[in-house]
Amino acid sequence: QQQVKQSPQSLIVQKGGIPIINCAYENTAFDYFPWYQQFPGKGPALLIAIRPDVSEKKEGRFTISFNKSAKQFSLHIMDSQPGDSATYFCAASKGGSNYKLTFGKGTLLTVNP
Amino acid sequence: ETGVTQTPRHLVMGMTNKKSLKCEQHLGHNAMYWYKQSAKKPLELMFVYNFKEQTENNSVPSRFSPECPNSSHLFLHLHTLQPEDSALYLCASSAGGTGGTGELFFGEGSRLTVL
Protein backbone atom coordinates (compact mmCIF):
# COMPACT_ATOMS: atom_id res chain seq x y z
CA GLN A 1 0.00 0.00 0.00
CA GLN A 2 1.52 3.25 -1.15
CA GLN A 3 0.76 5.88 1.44
CA VAL A 4 2.16 8.84 -0.51
CA LYS A 5 1.29 9.07 -4.19
CA GLN A 6 3.42 11.39 -6.30
CA SER A 7 2.82 12.66 -9.81
CA PRO A 8 3.92 13.10 -12.48
CA GLN A 9 6.66 10.50 -12.78
CA SER A 10 8.63 12.80 -15.07
CA LEU A 11 8.32 16.40 -16.18
CA ILE A 12 10.04 18.50 -18.81
CA VAL A 13 9.82 22.30 -18.83
CA GLN A 14 11.61 25.16 -20.51
CA LYS A 15 13.84 27.52 -18.56
CA GLY A 16 11.68 30.05 -16.75
CA GLY A 17 8.70 27.73 -16.59
CA ILE A 18 6.91 26.76 -13.38
CA PRO A 19 6.95 22.98 -12.87
CA ILE A 20 4.43 21.66 -10.38
CA ILE A 21 4.77 18.30 -8.65
CA ASN A 22 1.84 16.89 -6.74
CA CYS A 23 1.58 14.50 -3.83
CA ALA A 24 -1.40 12.95 -2.08
CA TYR A 25 -1.40 11.10 1.19
CA GLU A 26 -3.81 8.79 2.94
CA ASN A 27 -2.77 8.76 6.58
CA THR A 28 -4.41 11.66 8.41
CA ALA A 29 -1.89 11.25 11.22
CA PHE A 30 0.87 12.62 9.00
CA ASP A 31 1.90 16.05 10.21
CA TYR A 32 5.21 16.78 8.53
CA PHE A 33 5.73 17.02 4.77
CA PRO A 34 9.24 17.53 3.42
CA TRP A 35 10.50 17.62 -0.13
CA TYR A 36 13.89 16.16 -0.98
CA GLN A 37 15.95 16.92 -4.09
CA GLN A 38 18.35 14.38 -5.57
CA PHE A 39 20.93 15.05 -8.26
CA PRO A 40 22.42 12.14 -10.24
CA GLY A 41 25.07 10.31 -8.25
CA LYS A 42 24.15 12.11 -5.04
CA GLY A 43 21.99 11.34 -2.08
CA PRO A 44 18.71 13.19 -1.53
CA ALA A 45 18.90 16.53 0.29
CA LEU A 46 16.14 18.39 2.12
CA LEU A 47 14.76 21.19 -0.02
CA ILE A 48 11.79 22.55 1.89
CA ALA A 49 9.22 21.26 4.39
CA ILE A 50 5.80 22.22 5.66
CA ARG A 51 3.57 21.40 8.61
CA PRO A 52 -0.25 21.32 8.31
CA ASP A 53 -0.83 24.48 10.33
CA VAL A 54 0.02 26.59 7.25
CA SER A 55 -1.27 26.39 3.69
CA GLU A 56 1.84 27.66 1.94
CA LYS A 57 5.54 27.97 2.55
CA LYS A 58 8.03 29.69 0.31
CA GLU A 59 11.80 29.49 0.30
CA GLY A 60 13.44 31.32 -2.55
CA ARG A 61 12.01 29.99 -5.82
CA PHE A 62 10.49 26.93 -4.16
CA THR A 63 6.95 26.95 -2.75
CA ILE A 64 4.93 24.22 -1.07
CA SER A 65 1.16 24.49 -1.22
CA PHE A 66 -0.75 22.37 1.29
CA ASN A 67 -4.42 21.39 1.24
CA LYS A 68 -5.26 19.56 4.44
CA SER A 69 -8.87 18.77 3.57
CA ALA A 70 -7.86 17.22 0.26
CA LYS A 71 -4.81 15.55 1.81
CA GLN A 72 -2.65 16.94 -0.96
CA PHE A 73 0.47 19.04 -1.19
CA SER A 74 2.51 20.27 -4.10
CA LEU A 75 5.87 21.78 -4.96
CA HIS A 76 6.11 24.73 -7.31
CA ILE A 77 9.43 25.93 -8.73
CA MET A 78 9.31 29.52 -9.92
CA ASP A 79 11.56 30.68 -12.78
CA SER A 80 13.00 27.18 -13.15
CA GLN A 81 16.60 26.85 -14.22
CA PRO A 82 18.56 24.01 -15.88
CA GLY A 83 20.36 23.56 -12.55
CA ASP A 84 17.02 22.55 -11.02
CA SER A 85 17.04 19.39 -13.13
CA ALA A 86 16.92 16.60 -10.56
CA THR A 87 14.61 14.02 -9.02
CA TYR A 88 12.22 15.40 -6.44
CA PHE A 89 10.70 13.28 -3.69
CA CYS A 90 7.83 14.23 -1.47
CA ALA A 91 7.55 12.57 1.91
CA ALA A 92 5.39 12.49 5.01
CA SER A 93 5.72 11.45 8.61
CA LYS A 94 3.97 11.45 11.95
CA GLY A 95 5.13 13.23 15.04
CA GLY A 96 6.60 16.14 13.13
CA SER A 97 9.97 14.52 12.67
CA ASN A 98 12.13 13.03 9.99
CA TYR A 99 11.97 9.68 11.71
CA LYS A 100 10.29 7.03 9.61
CA LEU A 101 9.51 9.14 6.56
CA THR A 102 7.21 7.67 3.91
CA PHE A 103 8.42 8.75 0.50
CA GLY A 104 6.70 9.14 -2.84
CA LYS A 105 8.16 7.47 -5.92
CA GLY A 106 9.88 10.61 -7.15
CA THR A 107 9.56 12.96 -10.12
CA LEU A 108 12.37 13.38 -12.61
CA LEU A 109 12.42 17.04 -13.59
CA THR A 110 14.27 18.24 -16.67
CA VAL A 111 14.58 21.97 -17.29
CA ASN A 112 15.70 22.70 -20.83
CA PRO A 113 17.79 25.82 -21.55
CA GLU B 1 30.87 17.95 0.45
CA THR B 2 28.64 15.46 2.21
CA GLY B 3 29.02 14.93 5.96
CA VAL B 4 27.92 11.32 5.45
CA THR B 5 30.42 9.05 3.71
CA GLN B 6 29.52 5.67 2.29
CA THR B 7 31.88 2.96 1.06
CA PRO B 8 32.13 1.24 -1.27
CA ARG B 9 30.33 3.36 -3.87
CA HIS B 10 29.84 0.34 -6.11
CA LEU B 11 29.70 -3.34 -5.22
CA VAL B 12 29.09 -6.40 -7.34
CA MET B 13 28.57 -9.66 -5.53
CA GLY B 14 27.39 -13.16 -6.19
CA MET B 15 24.46 -14.67 -4.39
CA THR B 16 26.72 -16.69 -2.08
CA ASN B 17 29.11 -13.88 -1.15
CA LYS B 18 29.31 -12.00 2.12
CA LYS B 19 30.06 -8.31 1.96
CA SER B 20 29.52 -5.20 4.05
CA LEU B 21 28.54 -1.61 3.37
CA LYS B 22 29.99 1.08 5.59
CA CYS B 23 28.65 4.48 6.54
CA GLU B 24 30.35 7.18 8.57
CA GLN B 25 28.87 10.52 9.59
CA HIS B 26 30.94 13.51 10.67
CA LEU B 27 28.00 15.65 11.77
CA GLY B 28 27.69 14.67 15.43
CA HIS B 29 24.21 13.23 14.84
CA ASN B 30 22.50 10.72 17.10
CA ALA B 31 20.33 8.81 14.64
CA MET B 32 21.47 6.82 11.62
CA TYR B 33 19.37 5.15 8.94
CA TRP B 34 19.62 2.67 6.08
CA TYR B 35 17.32 3.27 3.09
CA LYS B 36 16.95 1.19 -0.07
CA GLN B 37 16.39 3.04 -3.36
CA SER B 38 15.14 1.03 -6.33
CA ALA B 39 14.16 2.42 -9.71
CA LYS B 40 10.60 3.74 -9.86
CA LYS B 41 9.94 2.85 -6.24
CA PRO B 42 9.74 5.02 -3.15
CA LEU B 43 12.75 5.13 -0.88
CA GLU B 44 12.27 2.31 1.58
CA LEU B 45 13.33 2.72 5.18
CA MET B 46 15.18 -0.41 6.31
CA PHE B 47 16.71 0.25 9.72
CA VAL B 48 17.03 3.07 12.22
CA TYR B 49 19.54 3.39 15.03
CA ASN B 50 19.16 5.94 17.77
CA PHE B 51 22.14 6.41 20.07
CA LYS B 52 23.51 3.06 18.81
CA GLU B 53 20.30 1.20 19.63
CA GLN B 54 18.17 -0.23 16.83
CA THR B 55 14.75 1.36 17.01
CA GLU B 56 13.30 0.31 13.68
CA ASN B 57 13.48 -2.80 11.52
CA ASN B 58 11.05 -2.37 8.68
CA SER B 59 10.46 -6.09 8.07
CA VAL B 60 13.82 -6.43 6.36
CA PRO B 61 14.93 -9.98 5.42
CA SER B 62 17.56 -11.47 7.69
CA ARG B 63 20.07 -11.59 4.83
CA PHE B 64 20.56 -7.91 5.66
CA SER B 65 22.21 -7.46 9.04
CA PRO B 66 22.89 -3.97 10.39
CA GLU B 67 25.51 -3.03 12.94
CA CYS B 68 26.02 0.28 14.73
CA PRO B 69 29.13 0.20 16.93
CA ASN B 70 28.88 3.91 17.79
CA SER B 71 26.84 6.96 16.83
CA SER B 72 29.19 7.80 13.95
CA HIS B 73 29.40 4.45 12.19
CA LEU B 74 26.81 2.19 10.62
CA PHE B 75 27.32 -1.03 8.72
CA LEU B 76 25.07 -3.20 6.60
CA HIS B 77 26.27 -6.78 6.40
CA LEU B 78 25.08 -8.66 3.34
CA HIS B 79 24.92 -12.42 2.82
CA THR B 80 23.17 -14.80 0.43
CA LEU B 81 21.48 -11.92 -1.35
CA GLN B 82 19.05 -12.24 -4.23
CA PRO B 83 19.19 -10.45 -7.60
CA GLU B 84 16.15 -8.39 -6.56
CA ASP B 85 18.28 -6.91 -3.78
CA SER B 86 20.22 -4.97 -6.41
CA ALA B 87 19.63 -1.32 -5.60
CA LEU B 88 21.21 1.86 -4.27
CA TYR B 89 21.61 1.66 -0.52
CA LEU B 90 21.56 5.04 1.16
CA CYS B 91 22.77 5.87 4.62
CA ALA B 92 21.44 8.93 6.41
CA SER B 93 21.82 10.63 9.75
CA SER B 94 19.88 13.22 11.71
CA ALA B 95 20.30 15.27 14.84
CA GLY B 96 18.18 15.01 17.92
CA GLY B 97 17.66 11.29 17.75
CA THR B 98 14.53 9.72 16.34
CA GLY B 99 12.28 12.04 18.28
CA GLY B 100 13.91 15.14 16.88
CA THR B 101 12.98 17.18 13.88
CA GLY B 102 16.43 17.29 12.36
CA GLU B 103 16.50 16.84 8.62
CA LEU B 104 18.02 13.72 7.12
CA PHE B 105 21.50 14.08 5.71
CA PHE B 106 22.11 11.37 3.12
CA GLY B 107 25.33 9.88 1.83
CA GLU B 108 25.85 9.35 -1.87
CA GLY B 109 24.90 5.71 -1.63
CA SER B 110 26.39 2.31 -2.38
CA ARG B 111 25.25 0.86 -5.70
CA LEU B 112 24.84 -2.89 -5.18
CA THR B 113 24.53 -5.40 -7.99
CA VAL B 114 23.77 -9.01 -7.12
CA LEU B 115 24.57 -11.47 -9.88
Explain this structure to me?
Chain A is built from no helices and 11 strands. Chain A has strands at residues 4-7, 10-14, 20-25, 33-38, 45-50, 56-59, 62-67, 72-77, 86-92, 102-103, 107-112. Chain B is mainly β and 115 residues long. Chain B has strands at 4-7, 10-13, 18-25, 31-37, 44-50, 53-57, 64-70, 73-79, 87-94, 105-106, 110-114. In chain B, the strands form 2 sheets. In chain B, strands 2, 4, 5, 6, 9, 10 and 11 form a 7-stranded mixed beta sheet that branches. In chain B, a hairpin with a 2-residue loop joins strand 7 and strand 8. Classes of the chains: A mainly beta (113), B mainly beta (115). The A-B interface holds A 2, 4, 9, 32, 34, 36, 41-46, 49, 89, 95-106 and B 2, 4, 31, 40-43, 45, 48, 56, 90, 92, 94, 96, 98-109.
Number of strands of chain B: 11
Calculate Rg of chain A over CA atoms: 13 Å
Query: pLDDT average of chain B, as an integer?
Result: 90
Termini separation of chain A (Å)? 38 Å
List the total number of helices of chain B. Answer: 0
In whole angstroms, how far apart are the ends of chain B? 32 Å
Low-confidence stretches of chain A: none
